[in-house]
Amino acid sequence: EGCRYNVMHVAAKENQASICQLTLDVLENPDFMRLMYPDDDEAMLQKRIRYVVDLYLNTPDKMGYDTPLHFACKFGNADVVNVLSSHHLIVKNSRNKYDKTPEDELHLDPASQQKVCV
């Protein structure tokens, strides 16, 4: 129940790029995944890793169908946008309830002069 946020939604909203990166590093670590699935062969383990990482990166919330990348863009959190958008499994063109992509939602403080790659 609830809004269906995961750690990436919360970290994206709170401008915690290091938490986003740490989460990805842990989820993509075969040793971590092997703790849960000790009998998997390497191919199955990699498939599970891709599946779980995709869920964390691309699952929309229940209210506005916003992904973590939507959140990072909406709140102007450039470091988080860069971490998320640089991952090879991120879906950059997903649309939320208002038919907006993350890039459509991008709001950055012009004074920050940060480069963002969406």
CATH architecture: Alpha Horseshoe
Q: What's the count of strands? A: 0
CATH topology: Serine Threonine Protein Phosphatase 5, Tetratricopeptide repeat
Instruction: Note the overall shape.
Output: globular
What percent of the residues sit in helical stretches (DSSP H or I)?
Answer: 40-55%
**Over all CA atoms, what is the radius of gyration?**
15 Å
Overall average residue pLDDT: 93
Instruction: Identify low-pLDDT runs.
Output: none
β content, as a range?
A: under 5%
Explained architecture:
By secondary structure, the protein is an all-alpha fold. The protein has a single domain, classed as Ankyrin repeat-containing domain (Serine Threonine Protein Phosphatase 5, Tetratricopeptide repeat), CATH 1.25.40. 48% of the residues lie in helices and 0% in strands. The protein is globular. The termini are far apart.
What topology emerges from the helices and strands here?
Elements: H1 7-13, H2 17-27, H3 30-36, H4 42-58, H5 68-74, H6 78-85
Helix pairs in contact: 1-2, 1-5, 2-6, 5-6
